[in-house]
Each structure stands twice: as structure tokens, then as C-alpha cells.
Amino acid sequence: TDHPMNAEARRRTEASNRGEQQPPYLVEVRHRDGTPRRLEVQEVPVLDAAGVVGFVEGTARDVTRELELRETMRIQAAALEAQVLSGQDRFSEAIAMLESISSGSGRSAQSGIVQAYVRAGDLDGARHYLEGQLAGDPDAPLPRLMLAGVATLAGDTAGAEAGYRALIADRPDY
């Protein structure tokens, strides 16, 4: 694939070809079903009697699922820590913790951030956060749904209804 890690993989393979032992590294490839896979590659340059690289021997192990599980565990641990902080009325710390993991981690972090604002009684903070999420992706259904929910909590029935109706019109399956 064109993943940036593959440039590093090429550099390491070239170093192996020059006889330089490399630590294991990751490469992203496309599986025959079209999905990206992450492989952990270990290479060993094999030298001939003259000390010249005769060939490079190596193995590749699919670590895609393992990496996904590690990331899920990291996100869940941070979310749990944020819940503990919220339970101790340390809402700003909880929000900061969730924001630190929200990049690319999806729904659970977004939801946790909004919940932390709501528990702290900061509906404007929740609204501002969701509007920021929608600025990056105006059609994202979850932030739209949560924004309508925040409007409901704020007593803005007309705004909540408009948000829910727009979401239903755009995404009846959601």
C-alpha cells in the first residue's frame, strides 16, 4: 500500500541488502480480499565466505489483529481512567484524557468526551466540542445525533427536533 510505514520498510530492506542487520519492522500490504494488513518482518542478511551478502532470509507474520487489539485496549484503558476522573469530579482532566485518545479512535471517545461535559454541567462545552467535530466532517451521524441530544438537555426543543429530523432525513438507517 502507500502507507508511510512502507517507506521505512523499503529503507530497512535496502540496509539488509547491504548486510546491515535490522530489527523487526512493520509493513502494510493489501490482502487478496482487499483489506490492508500489517506484517511484522524479520530479515537476516546471509553473507558468503567473502563477507558479501548472498541473500536475505526473512519471515513475515500478520500482526493486524494484535495491533487492533492493543489499540482497543489503550483506548478502553484511557476511557476507564477518564470515567474514574469524572467520578471524582475531575471533569476537565477526564475531558483532556478523552480528547488525547479521540483522534482516529472514533465513537467511544467522542461519546465519552460529550458525556464528561454533560456530567460537569457544561452543555456549552459539549456543544462546542460537537460543532468542532462537525466542522471536520459535517455529515458524521454520531456528532449530529449527540448535538441534538445536547440541545434537548439544554431545553432547546426546536433545535433538538430540527437536528433529529435532519439526521433522519439524511440517514434513515442510523
Task: Describe the protein in words.
The chain has 174 residues and is an alpha+beta fold. Helix content is 59%, strand content 16%. It is built from seven helices and three strands; from the N terminus they run αβββαααααα. It has helices at residues 5-17, 64-87, 91-102, 107-119, 123-136, 141-153, 157-170; strands at 25-30, 36-47, 53-62. Helix 4 runs antiparallel to helix 5, helix 5 runs antiparallel to helix 6 (141-153) and helix 6 (141-153) packs antiparallel against helix 7 (157-170). It is elongated.
List the helices and strands and how they pair.
Layout lengths: L4 H13 L7 E6 L5 E12 L5 E10 L1 H24 L3 H12 L4 H13 L3 H14 L4 H13 L3 H14 L4
Helix pairs in contact: 2-3, 2-4, 3-4, 4-5, 4-6, 5-6, 6-7
Beta strands, count: 3
What order do the SSEs take from the amino end to the carboxyl end, as H and E? HEEEHHHHHH
The helix content is 55-70%
Uncertain spans, ≥5 residues at pLDDT below 50?
A: none
Short note summarizing the structure:
The chain is α+β, with helices and mostly antiparallel strands. It has helices spanning 5-17, 64-87, 91-102, 107-119, 123-136, 141-153, 157-170; strands at 25-30, 36-47, 53-62.
Q: Which terms would index this structure?
A:
59% helix; 174 residues; 3-stranded antiparallel β-sheet
